[in-house]
Amino acid sequence: MVAQKDIDLNTPLDAQRPSTLIKSPLTPELAKAAVTLHGDRYKQSQANLSRSIIWHPYFVALYSLIFPSVLAYYLWDYISISDNLVELYIIASRNKKDFIFHVLMAAPTITGIFGIFGFMAYILADEVGTITDRYVAQKYCDFTFGFDVKEFAQDPKTPLLKNGKNSELVIYRDQPIAIATLKPDWEQSTPENFIVNITGIHVRKVFNQVGFDQLLIEWAVLRSRELYQEYLIRNSSKVKNGTVFVVTDAYSFDKHQEKTLLDCGFKLLSSSFELNPFNPSLKSYQKVLHKLLDIRRDTFGLLLTTERDDVELLKESDLLEKEQLRKRH
Prior knowledge:
Elements: E1 20-25, H1 31-54, H2 57-74, H3 76-79, H4 85-94, H5 96-134, H6 140-145, H7 149-152, E2 167-172, E3 175-184, E4 193-203, H8 212-234, E5 243-251, H9 255-263, E6 267-272, H10 284-293, E7 297-305, H11 311-314, E8 325-327
Parallel strand pairs: 4-5
Antiparallel strand pairs: 1-2, 1-8, 2-3, 3-4, 5-7, 6-7
């Protein structure tokens, strides 16, 4: 195997490295980093889903009912002898230690109830989290890239090297921090309608607000158009008014990514309550819960025509400059 570039998402970037920002297609030495970044997308999605469930309006409504009820139960000795809140305050002030003791007695129960809700969120979110654990073992990564990644990483002159152009990595301080990968749908594509699936876009969490995801989406649009032109040449087709249909998935609880797709001109096409795109295994009770909590995997699409100059969409993008290396101070 080709020596791989080390990547550790749990440690900050080396501040001693030059602050250079470059782009690169997928190469054998970047294979491990690319797989790690794509796998991390689902780990971050798991955290986003857990947070979304815990603070879902239904759950918040339950908190507002259950927690005061528990507190009232433990303070009933005070509440029962008080005619109003002022009297309750006076009685509590005269018996501060005992009042605080009763409040503290309620704390374990409240914590336990909150823990139950947290456990429910963990169980539901684990459906997404397990994708990361199985990403390599069950070859989900091969589906993302469209070829055998392990074979790709073995040989610096592999015949699969040309497929690396369908992935774009952003590297900062000599560390890959963002990636986008697309895969043409050769089976359903025709000279009149070329279909491309963006199988993964991910930005390291600390750089989420920088805007790399939008730049990578713009790259994917341009690359899709290039692939279409190659497809027409390979098939000796002279279609003049063909279309390029770019599709991708995003989770409903990842508001940032969905907003970015909409800002880039994508439209919502369909939704599914099945969160695992690699191995659908949605159980009936999961479907009910997903529907209740509005947990979805949304499919977005963008339709391009060959008459439209897609480069105009990208002319402001730093990643499309001829110079691949620039300094950031």
